């Protein structure tokens, strides 16, 4: 069955380039109206002009998603432009890669700065919180007024957030936080007619051009597995009315692969029925780990 978004409005953060741009165009092609939120005005305005030339309906808003006031104003401006919001796609992000401490031949070459840590946490983690908070306030008001939404939030985590990535402690922590925040938002917002899911995509973007450098070449390949356009079909489906029974889930997507990710879960356990002594715990812990599912290796380890 064809998926259509007639009269539905999507916000795409970081919507002017990479996965965000591919997602914006996919929603436009499916009939949605799109509010393109980005900090890069030239790219955003150019994309909106392209969409309008194709007969689509879009508007650009320059937004810093890490700024609560900026997000609140952008939600209000989007509602003034389109009269409604049905879908929020949190895609905006940056990287500031560095190791905790990098030493070569006995020399300290560098380490992650506080500013590098804070910047990534602000854009990714706080940026997701800010947009969800203000969109949720709108949907709650609609629900309380008797207009129960059929709304969607699709967050963007990463394999780095699920397994960790060497040299990306800030990015990994932010993306892991997004995964946990998705679970909480799904539980809290279901009463208002909102589903909340997340994706962990692998694709060629300006953020990943160095991380996935060895995977970027398309020479001799029939299928460009790292194209950003490979990510948008799943986002479109998750944003559709067909997905209303799916919430609080994480999906990994790369090329033609879609995987339902399984996060932290209760594993093997032992109950002494009393307080443990530290001297007893060596064999106990090793026995539990022998029975537990092996950890997925950290990227780059």
Highlighted features:
single chain; 301 residues; eight-stranded mixed sheet; 17% strand; globular
Number of helices: 8
- Give the N-to-C terminal Cα separation: 43 Å
**What is the structural class?**
alpha/beta
Shape: globular
Measured by DSSP, the beta-strand proportion falls in: 15-25%
Segments where pLDDT lies below 50 for 5+ residues? Answer: none
Evaluate the radius of gyration.
21 Å
Describe it for me?
The chain is of the alpha/beta class and 301 residues long. Helix content is 38%, strand content 17%. Strands 3-2-1-4-7-8-9-10 form an 8-stranded mixed sheet, with helices on both faces. A two-stranded antiparallel sheet has the order 5-6. Strand 2 (33-38), helix 2 and strand 3 (58-62) form a beta-alpha-beta unit. The longest helix is centred in the middle third of the chain and has 31 residues, at 114-144.
Characterize this entry briefly.
This protein has 301 residues and is α/β, with parallel strands linked by helices. The protein contains eight helices and ten strands.
How is the secondary structure organized here?
Blueprint: E1 9-13, H1 18-29, E2 33-38, H2 41-53, E3 58-62, H3 68-82, E4 87-89, E5 102-104, E6 107-110, H4 114-144, E7 151-156, H5 159-163, H6 169-189, E8 194-202, H7 232-238, E9 250-254, E10 257-260, H8 281-291
Parallel strand pairs: 1-2, 1-4, 2-3, 4-7, 7-8, 8-9
Antiparallel strand pairs: 5-6, 9-10
Helix pairs in contact: 1-7, 3-4, 4-6
């Amino acid at each position: 069955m064809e998926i259509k978004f007639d009269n539905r409005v999507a916000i795409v953060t970081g919507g002017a380039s990479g996965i965000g741009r591919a997602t914006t165009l996919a929603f436009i092609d499916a009939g949605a109206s799109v509010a393109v939120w980005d900090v890069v005005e030239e790219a955003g305005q150019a994309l909106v002009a392209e969409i309008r030339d194709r007969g689509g309906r879009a508007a650009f808003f320059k937004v810093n998603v890490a700024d609560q006031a900026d997000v609140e104003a952008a939600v209000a401006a989007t509602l003034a432009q389109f009269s409604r919001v049905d879908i929020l796609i949190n895609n905006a992000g940056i990287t500031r890669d560095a190791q905790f401490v990098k030493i070569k031949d006995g020399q300290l070459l560098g380490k992650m700065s506080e500013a590098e840590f804070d910047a990534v946490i602000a854009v990714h983690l706080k940026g997701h919180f800010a947009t969800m908070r203000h969109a949720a306030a709108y949907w709650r008001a609609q629900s309380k007024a008797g207009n129960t939404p059929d709304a969607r939030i699709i967050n963007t985590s990463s394999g780095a957030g699920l397994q960790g990535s060497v040299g990306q402690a800030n990015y990994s922590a932010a993306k892991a936080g997004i995964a946990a925040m998705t679970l909480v938002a799904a539980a809290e917002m279901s009463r208002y007619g909102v589903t909340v899911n997340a994706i962990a995509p692998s694709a060629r973007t300006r953020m990943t051009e160095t991380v996935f450098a060895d995977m970027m070449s398309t020479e001799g390949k029939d299928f460009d597995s790292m194209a950003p356009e490979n990510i948008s079909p799943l986002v479109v489906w998750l944003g559709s009315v067909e997905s209303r029974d799916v919430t609080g889930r994480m999906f990994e997507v790369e090329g033609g692969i879609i995987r339902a990710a399984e996060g932290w879960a209760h594993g093997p356990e032992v109950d002494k029925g009393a307080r443990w002594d530290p001297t007893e715990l060596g064999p106990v812990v090793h026995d539990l780990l022998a029975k537990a599912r092996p950890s997925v290796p950290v990227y780059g380890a």
